[in-house]
Amino acid sequence: MSEQALRTGPVPAGRLRTAYARRRVARSAPAAVAWAIVALFILIALLGPPLVGADPTRQTSDALAGLGAPGHLLGTDDFGRDMLARMVHGARPLLLVAFLATALAAVTGVAVGLVAGFYGGRVEWVLMRLMDLALAFPAMLLIILVVAAWSPGVPSLVVGIGASLAPGLARLTRALAGREAGRDYVLAARLGGTRAPRIMVQEVLPNIAGPLLAQVVMTLSVAAGFAAGLSYLGLGIQPPTPDWGYMVQAGQEFLYTAPRLVVLPAAATLLFVVACNFAGDDLRDALDPRGSR
What is the mean pLDDT of residues 184-210? Predict the structure, then answer.
């Protein structure tokens, strides 16, 4: 019997099930709005700063100008800096940290979970106990320790946030890979002499990519929340670079006289976080082989 005939797993080896490709994301109104918001924020971070033109760090005598002030659509802050420019420029560092930290968490967590789930036994026990130890450590405290040991900035934020989010992805990957490790298509690949790393990457990983991808998108929202929170505490992106988290902290002194200094960056951060969660849910449903859309 051929190796292909022996494969009776839920997905043909080496590629996602054809039904996955037939499903589409954003088939409901909330999901479509969520994907549009995520795409919009990415476009703003990539293309917004050159289009705005105004210098987000330039101080003027027009301090605390209101909405619609001449030359300042969103007004100015307490130093007379243009709020529109600061909002647009502030999207880039937040999204940069969120995407890089999520990528680091995904690569590390998926690699550890894949090895643990595929091999099982002592390998799984050792790796998962290490992940449990990391999960037992408060995530925010771990990030703060990394930032304090390094220095506030993008590299320390990426490493700290990525390290705190990797264990959760590792546990999910281990559960999914452990379920697939006993499938007939994996046994057939082993009997055919395929080496274990190749089986994990070319056979197992594509079959668990759906739920993993959805979880990674939702992890992006957590990373963005951590990045904004740390900047609010003064441990993230440092001034004069515009950053939404720091803008909330700096504007809270004027919460009653100029609430937009807090509301605008806080609402932008919340909107991105919520949109990522809705997008992740939609992606999970679209890639669920048992679901019907």
Answer: 84
